[in-house]
Write a structure and sequence with these properties.
This protein is mainly alpha-helical and about 525 residues long. It has 24 helices and no strands. Helix content is about 75%, strand content about 0%. The chain is globular.
């Protein structure tokens, strides 16, 4: 395996793997029930929740992509990171208490309680497919590509399988608790390593930010782009990004599962808001390095080479290994979260309802077996993505197909109490079908909207479907859904009796202010 990485740095990376596996095996000894495996025994505090949310969301392709985009096309796509605080605030305010009060294990279970089992199964099936075939396999593929930049001799298939196997090993053994605690370590390593790289680069330009701004046209550092911009047109920023963020942070099992494992509503809310603050960090330690590189190293050919180039040419021995461990952390945290959430959905939504007398030992066994089966599927598919690069680019936009109907039945369904099971089911069916049609038309050149703008358009269409079908069919049982919809006092549910400085709303306001300040600076 050819590499110019020192043996010290390789030793640091190997040590990281050993520590992660030891944590997984240690926690496995405490994993005795299905709730332990899938929700960590509902024991997570706010700090662990926030760090895990951050780590699970940051993938190696995110790090490479943010730095590369800041170098080549601009910082517009960074809004997906630092604007995450807005949907996280919505999650903390409304959906955290609704989810935790209903004692669900999976997000599709909430749909069964609010609407019916048809919506639960449809949503669960879509989530499992997208998580394994897009999130997990994509994470393995992108992670292997990143590692090959440092270790050119790596074999794609074997590396994908190795990463998947290690993630599956500690995930199947220790369940969500192993995932969350390793994620917390990974988040710290990632932030620390990237912060050091940023500091060294800033020192090389004498902390002269004017030099960064002078290295590219002014629009390079603006997040408000023209309507014909291929990465993110301004209308997509307004009508697409917020809803995609809501889907990701409030309805995606892959992310929300660690929130469901919170010890109570208060810790879950604090953890979600903490994650919102953490999501601002990538702007400074992943985007800025790419912008500085444009000034210091203007001859790098491709954007995806920027971060590997900086790591191997700027950092001293030892720190290279630390940042590499951070990159591998990003790969592992995405893969372990995806495997754990998907196995949870399979067992809880599909297997358990057909086995009403299933024991805790059997639940754990099914969960572990499912994790390894899904790992094999993702690992086998991951290397094939390289043979369908055009298709894979399209798959990234497929989220614009599944997001609108899901957003509507959750967000509108919480406030529109007349919404019923028929409305939710047909919104999912018709909304997804229209989304697929528009996607195909767009690829053939007959539908001109950017996929982020298309999300906003489809939100309107799906809302009309949901409202009309619900009004034309019988109303739901008001008593049954009373605790599953918005009600007076929901905002302070679980927060009574705590002093003002522990009120999550205070930090919600501070977070909103920070996001608005950043938006004003990057307008």
């Amino acid at each position: 395996m050819e590499t110019n990485i020192s043996s010290i740095d390789i030793g640091i990376v190997i040590s990281y793997f050993v520590v992660v596996l030891l944590i997984g095996f240690y926690i496995a000894r405490q994993t005795k029930t299905g709730e332990d495996l899938f929700l960590g025994g509902r024991s997570f505090g706010w700090g662990i929740i926030g760090l895990s949310l951050f780590a699970s969301n940051i993938s190696s392709s995110t790090i490479i992509g943010l730095s590369g985009a800041a170098y080549t096309t601009g910082i517009a796509t960074s809004v997906y990171e630092w604007m995450s605080g807005i949907p996280l605030i919505i999650a903390a305010t409304i959906f955290v208490p609704l989810y935790l009060r209903s004692q669900i294990t999976t997000i599709p279970e909430f749909l069964e309680l609010r609407f019916d089992r048809r919506s639960q199964l449809f949503f669960s099936g879509i989530t499992i497919f997208s998580t394994i075939m897009i999130e997990t396999a994509g994470g393995l593929y992108a992670g292997t590509i990143v590692l090959k930049a440092f270790f050119p001799g790596l074999n794609m298939a074997y590396t994908s399988l190795g990463l998947a196997f290690v993630a599956a090993l500690y995930t199947a053994s220790g369940g969500l608790k192993a995932v969350v605690y390793t994620d917390a370590i990974q988040a710290v390593i990632l932030i620390f390593g990237c912060s050091i790289l940023t500091y060294i680069l800033l020192a090389q330009i004498d902390f002269d930010f004017a030099r960064i701004l002078a290295s590219a046209p002014a629009e390079h550092f603006s997040v408000v782009r023209p309507m014909d911009d291929e990465s993110l047109p301004w209308l997509g920023l307004l009508v697409g990004v917020p809803f995609m963020g809501f889907w990701y942070w409030s309805t995606n099992q892959y992310i929300v599962q660690r929130v469901l494992g919170g010890k109570n509503i208060r810790h879950a809310r604090w953890g979600v808001i903490f994650a919102g603050f953490l999501k601002i960090i990538p702007l400074f330690v992943m985007v800025i390095p790419g912008a500085i590189a444009l000034s210091l190293y203007p001859d790098i050919e491709k954007g995806d080479q920027v971060f590997p180039f900086l790591v191997t040419n700027v950092l001293p021995v030892g720190l290279v290994g630390l940042v590499l461990a951070g990159l591998i952390s990003a790969i592992m945290s995405s893969v372990d979260s995806a495997l754990n959430s998907s196995s949870t959905l399979v067992v809880v939504d599909f297997i358990k309802p057909h086995l009403p007398d299933i024991t805790n030992d059997q639940l754990v066994q099914y969960g572990r077996i499912t994790t390894f089966v899904l790992m094999i599927i993702a690992a086998v598919w991951a290397p094939q993505i390289g043979n369908f690069s055009g298709l894979w680019d399209y798959l990234q936009q497929m989220f614009s197909i599944i997001v609108p109907p899901i957003v509507v039945i959750f967000l509108v369904g919480v406030f529109f109490k007349r919404g019923n099971g028929d409305g939710a089911f047909w919104t999912l069916m018709i909304g997804t079908a229209i989304g697929v049609l528009l996607f195909i038309l767009g690829e053939q050149g007959f539908w001109p909207l950017h996929f982020t703008v298309n999300v906003g358009f489809m939100i309107v269409v799906c809302t009309i479907i949901f409202v009309v079908v619900s009004l034309l069919t019988p109303a739901p049982d008001a008593a049954k859904i009373s605790k599953l919809t918005y009600r007076k006092g929901l905002v302070m549910d679980g927060m009574e009796g705590y002093p003002w400085y522990q009120d999550y709303r205070l930090y919600m306001v501070i977070l909103t202010g920070l996001i608005l300040c950043i938006l004003a600076q990057l307008w």
